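ASSEMBLY PREDICTION REQUEST
Request ID: AP-0331
Submitted by: J.K., bench scientist
Number of chains: two
Total residues: 515
Priority: normal
Notes: Please return the full assembly, not individual chains.
Input sequences:
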Amino acid sequence: MMCQRCHNEASVHLTEPHKGKQRELHLCVACARKAGLTMPEEPPDLSLDAVVQSLIVANVGELVGELALLVCPDCGIKFMEFRAGGRLGCPQDYQVFSAGLVPLLERFHGASRHVGKVARRRSGAGLRLRLRTQLRSAIAREDYEEAARLRDQLRLKDSQA
Amino acid sequence: MILDDLTKSSGEWLRGTGPESDIVMCSRIRLARNLADFPFANRASRGEKTEIESHFISALNHAKLDLSYIDVNGLSILDRKFLVERQIISRELDNGDGPRGVAISPLENVAIMVNEEDHLRVQFMLSGFRLPDVWDAVNQLDDRLESQIAYAFSPQLGYLTACPTNVGTGIRVGVMLHLPGLVQQKQIDKVFRALQKINLAVRGLYGEGSQASGDFYQISNQQTLGKSEVELIKILTDVVPQVLNYERSARQHLLTERKQHLHDQVSRAYGVLKTAQTISSEETMLLLSSVRMGINLGLIDDLSIATVNELFIQTQPAFLQKLRGTELGVEERNVARASYLRSRLSNGRQGPRL
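STATUS: Completed
Returned structure:
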């Protein structure tokens, strides 16, 4: 059955008294939420994925403005994709999506700063990730001169690693 | 082949040694780690996953770690299930695709999964309640790997992980507890609710979402950011003894109030396991749980805890099929399980009989 307000599949079905008669309402989840109809409480799903998902939705909420447009330059993941799947694409995302992630970390961990073991410092760690992404996009736009330059840089980094 | 050798042995963590091993089956800690120069596994290409895998293998060699690497991508479904049953790999690694694997130590204390949710999941397990020892071991292992691998790390957020719920220390500190007393006294839910209130997770024998079986429960931390590894371990080392007290008093209560009933239940369980001709996995777990409690309460004296611990794992479907060297349907497995149980229980103190 179709939602009476848009054309998505309706999944909320209600009967309510209206002008002395019973009226049926069939809405999709999004329209039901817009209409201020809260869902009956679902049994808590304790699998971690579900917990993460509900945290993401509760804390990031409906995406507004810039956050919705954010894309990681290194791995290409969009913030929207993280919001849907609950997994980040690369280490760089923590910086790129920081505005969206910090409230989430605060909520889940009750903290947003690391305490504990510290990894040894390595200069240039993470650089190769960016070079590889740039190389892929150079090849995609057939800029072979740039691709060759990036490939040489990558080889240099690999030999230093 | 290494996997077939595994059917002839069992992990150290099943030996039933170490402090509090009447209730604490094992202590384990895993660290989530990622290589700085690669996208996380869920966004890595096949080629990148292969590179991650070979970086890891060469790090093992350079760090002179004596571990065997099992290429999980090349394994049959049966072999993968076999590793899941032994707690060497997660169901997520089993169900994954592309280049992935696990490095294990001879006694199976160490298991490092490659290309699971994170590039590396470094795990160390010991039988009994020994979290500080486990931490020392896994911390050293991590240091040796890190001498060869550039980890993804930020001074503000710590070790960076594919899921923000693991970021920071990347640590999961867990103990596997056998709690038949609390289950029988119907107090287990109360204990779980109390644990969840202090932000600890409770899972079944086979991890996330799995139903508890054999009255085994894993308790672990959920928070990974904002507290140090040592602080997070301390939460468990403070709380677990209280759970142990509850379980012991539940067992004592059963023993004083309903001794005859309990003795009967334990003896019948032992009797069925020793003589059944066909038996399901669920019934086996249930009965083994009674027998395990019976040994700990002195109601059975001709069977070792280690044997019972092993049987929880070695009566699982994949182990039985590996042992028989062929795929078996449910009915055939039930017959094979009963026959294996009879052979093991008539030789209680000995190792696996093949």
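REVIEWER COMMENTS: The radius of gyration of chain A is 23 Å.
SIGN-OFF: pending second reviewer
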